[in-house]
Amino acid sequence: MDFARTAGTFSRSALARLTAAGAIFMGAVTLMGVSATGAEAAGCGFALEKGRHPISFSVNGVERQGVYYIPSSYTGKDKVAVVFDFHGSNSNPAGQFDRSSWDKVAEKNGFIAVALQGSLSGKAAGTYGWNVPFVQVNQQVLPTGAAGGQDEVAFISEAVSAVKQEFCVDPARIFASGYSGGGRMLSAYLCSGGEGFAAAGFVNSLRAGRPVEAEGKWGPEAANCSPAKPVSIMAFAGVKDQQNPYAGGGAAYWQYGFKTAIQRWSDLDGCKGDADPKTIEGVTYSIYATCKSGARIASYVFANGTHDWPKPAPAAEAVMAAAKDAAVGVTKVSASTIKPKLAFDPNVDPASRMWDFFGKADSTDVVAVVAPAKAGVVKSGLGAETGTGVASDCAMEANSQDQTCNSIQPLNMRRSGQGVQDAL
After folding, report:
1. 78 CB-contact burial (10 Å; exposed 0-12 / middle 13-18 / buried 19+)
2. What domain range includes position 33?
């Protein structure tokens, strides 16, 4: 697979192949104005420009697209983590960053974020969907998904390999996150035995194999999900999600519910014990903390959650930030906001919570020392009593399900990116 960051620029791996074939020889590789030699050409040694940049891949002769984000702390000298962010249906990579804010989390924590683009055309110009294997199309269930779509499993595998080659990254700290259709694609990738991700996060999207009906009950087909190894998973779901229903049903690709998917993954990961659910202000947190190979499975269920990507209300974000910036075990917030230690903090920002989860080998990522801040008015989906709003700030989003937000806005804004009703 060929990989390019900017038009007209050879990637290091492409130049290495040309050099090995005797087609070209240069004493140094020049990329984006920076020179490197020898071992540096393996991925490290290049300081790259901060911000979002387009990338392109050629897989089996087909050009594929994406966007990556370089944090300001990246020097190319130290190996960093990577998070792949998979967009929902009728969306795109930039729109997904706008929705999830994985690029903001990457900037704060010094890792690279990569958003790939699905191969199917969306309902609106500039939007796309994922060719999820075994999705029913025109009354047929195809191993490769929709007719005319590309092999997404091969694309993801090649993209992970390319990122490891092209950037200075730690191969043991490559993670993935998927929203809606992107999470269904990520589920299918893991179920197919796809490798490269140390842990994965899902928002309104977790699957554990294609749905099959037996004796009037829907569940995941056991033979359709065979992960390469136990995988740590954090999943989010809204009880009032009408696109991918929490209880099951809905579109042909969905059918079985969220609890069934979690239970199946706990079986696949060889988890012991129960999930020990705890509920605070309409948010239920559960975790299987003892699974094979150190894997864990955690979930957040929002009683008033819809299909929207959840985010803390602004007041909650301010309190959370104040607590996080304080010394360990000491908070510098007003005494009036402090309560006894909670089982977990219900003011959930999925990307930030996933990042904490990805980086820890135990269950300490859910400790909360600050009382949940109450939101005044939040947008649709998660009631004010949860202290959680929705990343939904496109000016015209309420006017059209097919409306898009493709432009890159300042990174201090949280937006949904694409019309959430069609981001399946």
Report:
1. exposed
2. 1-46
